[in-house]
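Troubleshooting log. The previous run stalled partway through. Resubmitting the same two chains, unchanged.
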Amino acid sequence: MSWLQNLPIRKKLTVVILVTCATVLLMASTALAAYELFDFRRTLVRDTTVLADIIGKTTRAALAFEDETAAKEILHALQSEPNIVAARLYDRKGKTFAEYTGSTAYIPIPADPEEIGARFASGRLIVLRPIMLNERRVGTIYIQIDLAGIYTRLWFFSGVAFLVLAGSLVVAFFLSARLQRPISRPLLKLAATAQMIAEHKDYSVRAAREGGSETGVLTDAFNEVLTGIQERETALQSEIAERQLAESRVKAQLARVAQLHQITRATGERQDLKSIFQVVVRSLEDHLPVDFGCMCLYDEIDHALMVNSVGLNSKGLALELALTENTHIPIDKNGLARCVGGELVYEPDIEAVAFPFPQRLARGGLRALVAAPLLVENKVFGVLIVARRQKESFSSGECEFLKQLSEHVALAAHQAQLYGALQQAYDDLRQSQQAILQQERLRALGQMASGIAHDINNAISPVTLYTESLLDTEPDLSPRARDYLGTIQRAMDDVAQTVSRMREFYRHRETQLSLYPLNLNRLVSQVVNLTRVRWSDMPLQNGVVIDMHSELAEELPAILGVESEIREALTNLVFNAVDAMPEGGTLTVRTLVADPAPAVSDSQSPFPGAVVVEVTDTGVGMDEDTRRRCLEPFFTTKGERGTGLGLAMVYGTVRRHNADIEIDSSPGQGSTFRLLFPLPSAPLQEEMVITPAPAMGRLRLLVIDDDPLILKSLSDILTAEGHDVVTVPGGQAGIDAFNDALTHAQPFAIVITDLGMPYVDGRKVAAAIKAASLNTPVVLLTGWGERMAAEGDVPEHVDRVLSKPPKLGELRAAFFELLVPPPPTP
Amino acid sequence: MIQAGLGAVHALTDSEKRAHPFVSWFAAAVLLLALVCAPASAQPPAREYQVKAVFLFNFLQFVEWPKDAFDNPRAPVRIGVLGEDPFGAALDAAVRGETIDHRPLVVRRSNRIEDLEDCHMLFVGGDLRHRLEGVLSRLSSQPILTVSEIDGFARHGGVIAFYQDGKKVRFEINIAAARHHRLKLSSELLSLGRVIGTDALTEGGPDT
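Second attempt completed without errors. Output:
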């Protein structure tokens, strides 16, 4: 029945009606035909039986009286019925009594009567009836009926019935075609409506209602369903739209988050501000994207922005707008000011903004601008500026993104700064550590050297004292003796100098320099002589020849300075020059006067003019890096041999003398170190003349020292000077002696005491002396003397510190100063 | 072969069908032989009188008597043979065991008319040819069916008279005489016999 399912409803209804009609009609007519057939046969049997009985009745007399003729006549009457093809009478004995045969063929008639009854056989009805007379059977009648004609009639009847059936179906077809409309039309309309809706997805269509029965109800229900669908569809559409919007937002957000992540990671990989900014701007240009992007740093003092980084694609535009790197942008009262105040500023259309900076960007064809502040700890240190040609083209999401990005960038930049500071601090720390290590080493060395120097000073003190005394006080000395003593004195001076230089390791400079006029030419000569061993003797041992040239300017003006320091500085320079020439070469020391308008160098020397000393070698020279760093403390190219302090000392000296240093050098071309000392404003005497202190007359002196040799030599010398000298070999003994003298009214004019003594040292002695007699000067004599002076450690109660080995002149000067003017205020 | 087989089956069924009639036919033949042979052995009556005896009996079946002809419904139908009896045993044989409307049949023979006046049917023997008038007059208006083989018996007032038509026995009926005797004769009987006395019938039409 599936073909039926697929038929359109009109045809379906027609088919249903027709099939129903046909089936009913067919069943009815079949039943009718069957009944007809059955009834016909029954009737035929009955009629024939009746006929047979009638014939029997009419022939029984003939049978009874054996009148065959009469019987024949009666039988003959059957010819009026053409269906009766044969009839026969049998007598009571079963013999054929009379017979009738019709025109048509008949089947053979049995010779003897068969069983009474009716039967159908071979298209014939055969009826046999007994013939009774007064309850006696007098014979039998046999009738044979040909059914062909009857069946023909039956077939004809069937044909007519079929035609009637066909006609009925035709009528039914037309009737059904008309009558089905009330059913099919609303359904078809509904179907058409439904199809239209399915095709156009237009749920606002409604089916027209027809009739009030089930189809009407169906239409109403359909329309209601449509209304429901339409409502849901509308709701669904709006929901989908919302979701799509949300999804696109989420996608954009995700993309931005990814970009943010990417930028953050990229910035995290960089540590310097410039490259961080560059990465950010490039990324924004490529991915946000923007038409123009730059990063500016905020200069709080100038209240201006400085362009730090411009994106690669923005460079052209930046040139056009004069916004290249390092351009200053003054901050106007508009957006930039708000931005610098920490706000994200979005100008949807900068053409409408009358301030200079937006107008400047607008001239470049840009319309929408976002300026995001780079905030670190609530301080704006920079601004991120992005712009697009399309006005109002930054969405709120993008603004938010830029805000977040600026925060990240600010953090990254801040971290970069912190990292830089940390790196710097770390470097400094390492250098400090190095310096401290070095200092510790030097300190140990210095302490050792200092101890040695102390001992040597003590040891040579008598030699110096006696030599000086001899040369001074013995006019009768032979020239040879005088020469020898002079040599001894110089040698002792050299020893003292060597020892003092040894102490230099540990010595610190006096903060307050006492500057004296001095002649550089003389100093240079001294240095050349003093360093002879290094530039002549030691190289020669290795077969290396160094030519030393001194080119000294005539009439060189004096300068103010500390002789020993400058000498030391020049010595260091000479040593360095020698070290720079391991293969030998020429070493030139030159003095000259620089012009007031300095042509010597490009240095912006503030001096009106300068006295210059140059040390030039033809050695290996320095590269730029070395040249730049060579003045740093502990920087050395000499490995373990060097301390890295030589040039640093030189630099310190130069700075202290308010002088300048210039270094010309290039690798393989040798080096020139040039010291420029300022010309003093007023012409100076070349050198203060040290007038020998006059003899003080007889003084009562107390000398305290634990070294008997020094004690003896001092006693000898001072006694020879004409003083009354009491020597005491220890601190406590000295104090006792002083007090003893006080009580005996024989006070000492001056007390000279050693510093380092067992049990009671020089300081305690000084304190005790001052406690007993405040006005008695105390001279401290020490092998540590210079160190103490350097440390500013002039002990309390001490009036003067003198170094060992003591010099007669110094002693005389000290006595003079302490006693001749009224005692100086402490 | 198949045809032959089918034919054999048909033959078989035919013979079976015929078996029954054949048996009955055979039995009828035997019976007929017995019937024919039995009288012949005693006193074989002429074929003619056998037929006439049966005819006599048959006449009884087509005739209706007035009610007063019988004393009661079970009263026998009396058949009288007046004078010479030509039937011998044939008449007795013909009526033996038979009934007419549940009435038994009785045959009386006599030469005297007086003995036979209460009979319902009276066969008048040929020997009374000359005394016919007297007999008939004596029986007038009596409900008696008179039968005879005397020529002109019907024309002379008898009801049914046998006559010979070739070999066949035929009869003529005087319906006027029948009416006279208050007898109703069946039309079947009338259609077989030669009917006379119709004038009287038409004459007497208004009377009935």
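Takeaways: The interface with chain B takes residues 58, 60-62, 64-67, 70, 93-94, 110, 112-115, 133-134, 136 of chain A (CB under 8 Å). The domain at 270-394 of chain A is CATH 3.30.450.40 (Beta-Lactamase).
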